[in-house]
Amino acid sequence: WTTKILALTDALGNLVRFHLLPGNRYDTVGVAPLIDGVGFDTILADKAFDSNWIIDEMNQRGTKIIISQRPQRKNPISIDAEIYKWRHLIENFFAKLKEFKGIAMRSEKTDRNFSAMIYACAAVINSR
After folding, report:
1. Dist CA 81 CA 87 (whole Å)
2. Are 19 and 35 spatial neighbours (Cβ–Cβ below 8 Å)?
3. With contact defined as beta carbons under 8 Å apart, do 38 and 8 qualify?
4. Which CATH class name applies to 3-127?
5. Per-residue tens of pLDDT for the chain, all 128 residues
6. Are 90 and 66 in contact (CB under 8 A)?
7. pLDDT value at position 9?
8. What is the pTM of this model?
9. What is the DSSP string of 18-57?
10. Residue 64 near residue 84 (C-beta atoms within 8 A)
11. 45, 58 in Cβ contact below 8 A?
12. pLDDT at res. 23
């Protein structure tokens, strides 16, 4: 039993919203509920989010796209390498989140309880 956590953070790496997915689902499945109703100027993500529909959605919103491109993309988008370096903030958030054993081990069996634990841990992380 595995669970993926898709997270949306602000520019400082603080949790804004997250979405849980079964471990065998592709990440882009959870992006729509993650970004629904949230406004932002720039999206900064890794290759898992390099999807045509995400790129089209961001273009419609007028959002700057900083997504690492998959090698098989026919028309790669040029990205700002200096801004892409800031993606480490989301990785740092996940590293801090996984310091909590209950999150790392997925000790809660229901999504509701696991989500509550993520919220609680994120509150502790933000208070540091």
Report:
1. 10
2. no
3. yes
4. alpha beta
5. 688 899 999 988 899 999 999 888 888 888 888 888 888 899 999 888 888 899 999 999 999 999 988 888 888 888 888 999 999 999 999 999 999 998 988 888 899 999 999 999 999 999 98
6. no
7. 92
8. 0.82
9. EEEEETTS-GGGGHHHHHTT---SEEEE-GGG--HHHHHH
10. no
11. no
12. 83
In angstroms, the CA 51 to CA 106 distance is 28
**Own/partner long-range contacts of 96-105 (Cβ < 8 Å, ≥24 apart):** 96/125, 97/5, 97/121, 97/122, 97/125, 100/124
**Nearest 5°: CA angle at 71, between 51 and 62?**
40
Token pair 């081990």: residue: 105
Residue written as tokens 């540091």?
Answer: 128
| Residue 1: per-residue pLDDT | 61
Token pair of 33 as six digits:
């509920």
